[in-house]
Task: inverse folding
């Protein structure tokens, strides 16, 4: 069927009556979703909508990241490495989207942001419970973060649970131990409420896996997936830092942090340090 007058005719079978049917908008609860953007600046500043949508979409993606990482942890517990790696692969694609998204916010100039920043009060991305949950499930645990969420019992409970649960890395190491690899007891029995720190006793294990990849392909592939995960996370952190520096310079953060200098410290945090350290050992 050709197009006439630059107008596409509708197929006869297209549904038009949604008085008793589920529609696209009702399935996605679009009236609720699209009414959630409520600028607070007075008078309303044109660019505040960008700022709100940027952070709301980030939170939606973080919700999916948590969903996938929780599932990955459970699949590792069930010895289903394939499903766990599939979930991690999806997270990697989400991370790419989240990192590229900073370029949209970077179109907000310092002058434009300064005209509504004061209306944010102490609201800050530092207070994102989902971002903190992702850090916790990946192994960067810090109980000192919990008081920030005292006024939000649901978020605090979620973080408390993740604080006491094994991280993805803990679950992977336990998986390796169950499958015949010699994982040191000191690592398996560690206090999971603490951030994982570099454990040199793990290096012989990973050196063996990497130097005999063909004989340990599943473990080798999993290690590289985790390396990708951390690399992507660090790229996100760096892009965040540079966007903040570009927009507010060296000003303090709205949540009370030192701003850029505080964000720089996050670049020194690591999730899977042995998987990077082993690269120095391979071939020696």
Result:
């Amino acid at each position: 069927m050709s197009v006439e007058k630059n107008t596409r005719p509708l197929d006869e079978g297209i549904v038009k009556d949604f008085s008793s049917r589920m529609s696209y908008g009702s399935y996605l609860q679009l009236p609720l979703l699209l009414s959630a953007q409520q600028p607070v600046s007075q008078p309303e500043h044109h660019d505040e909508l960008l700022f709100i949508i940027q952070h709301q979409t980030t939170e939606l993606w973080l919700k999916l990241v948590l969903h996938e990482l929780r599932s990955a942890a459970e699949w590792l517990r069930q010895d289903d490495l394939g499903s766990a790696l599939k979930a991690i692969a999806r997270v990697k694609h989400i991370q790419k989207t989240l990192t590229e998204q900073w370029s949209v916010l970077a179109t907000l100039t310092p002058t434009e942001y300064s005209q509504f920043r004061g209306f944010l009060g102490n609201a800050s991305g530092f207070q994102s419970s989902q971002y903190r949950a992702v850090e916790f499930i990946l192994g960067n645990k810090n109980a000192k973060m919990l008081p920030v969420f005292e006024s939000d019992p649901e978020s605090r409970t979620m973080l408390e649970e993740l604080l006491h649960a094994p991280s993805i890395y803990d679950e992977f190491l336990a998986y390796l131990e169950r499958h015949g690899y010699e994982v040191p007891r000191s690592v398996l029995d560690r206090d999971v409420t603490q951030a994982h720190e570099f454990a040199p006793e793990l290096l012989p294990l990973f050196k063996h896996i990497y130097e005999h990849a063909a004989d340990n392909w599943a473990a080798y592939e999993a290690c590289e997936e985790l390396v990708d995960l951390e690399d992507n996370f660090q790229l996100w952190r760096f892009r965040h830092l540079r966007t903040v520096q570009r927009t507010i310079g060296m000003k303090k953060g709205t949540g009370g942090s030192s701003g850029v200098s505080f964000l720089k410290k996050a670049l020194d945090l690591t999730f899977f340090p042995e998987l990077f350290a082993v690269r120095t050992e391979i071939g020696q």
